[in-house]
Amino acid sequence: MENLKSIFLANFPDFKTFDQSGEKYKVEEDNYKREAAERMHFYFGDWVAGKTNLSPDEVFGRIKDLLYKKLEKSGFRQNLTGWRNDEYITETLLSDYKKREEFSSLLLSLLKTVNASQPIAKELDEMISWLNAKNAPPRITKLIPSLVLFFWDPTRFIFIKPMLFDQFFAQIGEQPLQPRLTAGNYQRVLDTIRRMEVQISEFEPRDMIDLQSFVYVVTRPLEEDTYAEIEAQEHTYQHLSETEKESVIQSRLGQGQFRRQLVALWNGCSVTGFNEYQGVLIASHIKPWRYSSNEERLDKHNGLLLLPNLDKLFDKGFITFSGEGKLLVSKKLGKKTMTALGIQESMSLRKAFPKQQEYLKYHREHIFQANNSS
Questions:
Q1: Could you tell me if 369 and 332 are in contact, meaning their C-beta atoms sit under 8 angstroms apart?
Q2: Contact call for residues 274 and 307 (beta carbons, < 8 A)
Q3: Domain segments of the chain as ranges
Q4: Does the predicted TM-score (pTM) go above 0.90?
Q5: CB 236 within 8 A of CB 294
Q6: Contact at 8 Å (CB) between 151 and 43?
Q7: Mean pLDDT of the chain
Q8: pLDDT recorded at residue 76
Q9: Based on the number of CB atoms within 10 Å of its own CB, is 67 exposed (0-12), middle (13-18) or buried (19 or more)?
Q10: 271 with 167: CB under 8 angstroms?
């Protein structure tokens, strides 16, 4: 967590605490989220309190405004959800009166329960079940419920941006989220964030807006690079079903089906055998995701489960493995660096699988930096 704190502070030089955060933090992270929460209550407060009625079309119109309309004070719209998700919500998920009617009923029930300070598990699972019944992509089951809860009561609830949270959980050694949200899984997220709140207590977080902003800022560099690659390769998987797309995307993040298969196959680091806390291990492709077919992206034999130091060196081509699994080290990696990173030339893969050979050969021939030449 100390490293993540340093990343956060590097982004905001004037930051002291969240209450004395400096202008940069307020403009980039804080103001628009608080204004969006105010707008949520302006749009739906009387409706939830039973003071007025809203038709399903009126609820839809206000949800659309919440997603798209510029905020008056900050001058730009909320950017938590992303335009592709906004488009799916407005043009597919809530595209007709019947869907809007069903969603409005579920939304009203959920927000009333929050107002009554009652447990939300039943109402949250009902909304998620409805999303599943409408064949919503797994990411949408996380995004919509957590967004409305976050804007409605940011003292209690956090917004889950799916890929970002998967990356963040990997950084802090937590097990990945399930592809589709459940009330139990959401509670696990809240519990994790509350533990993080204690760990960054010197920053004096005021609410979930501050905590969500911390998560976003410290994970953003990873997410932006990864998301750019996923987006650039969209043409290679856009013909798949939503569930298949999600599996392919999750594999790039080292999560989902791909990770579960590697954990079952290796039961620890593929090199060292470390398995005391598998949350720190990274599910890495041998043949890089961007160069792999969709089948190869999900193939467990195209993956290794590695400690972070080994993963980074493997990803950058400073180490690779022979057909027998023996460690091969680039001449660009000096002895001092090897020692500092805990790399020993005697290392090898704990298992060698015939189906792995072509992937390892690809890595040796196309990724491995064998010599000193640049």
A1: yes
A2: yes
A3: 2-230, 265-366
A4: no
A5: yes
A6: no
A7: 87
A8: 80
A9: buried
A10: no
The CA angle 99-138-302, to the nearest 5 degrees, is 155
Tokens, residue 367: 């990724």
Tokens 């298992």 -> residue: 351
pLDDT at 372: 52
CA distance 356 to 359: 5
What are the residues facing 283 on neighbouring strands? 305
State the burial class of residue 334 (Cβ atoms within 10 Å of its Cβ: 0-12, 13-18, 19+): exposed
How far is residue 161's CA from residue 173's CA, in Å, rounded to a whole number? 18
Q: Are 128 and 182 in contact (CB under 8 A)?
A: yes
Contact 189, 160 (CB under 8 A): yes
Please report the DSSP string for 163-205 in residue order: HHHHHHHHHTTPPPPPSS--HHHHHHHHHHHHHHHHHTGGG--
Q: Which has the closest alpha carbon to 146: 194, 100, 180?
A: 180
- What residues does 329 pair with on adjacent strands? 319
Of 128, 226, 134, give the one whose Cα is nearest residue 178: 128
**Residue whose pair of structure tokens reads 């039973």 in the numeric block:** 50
Q: Are 288 and 302 within 8 A, CB to CB?
A: no
3 state SS of 320: strand
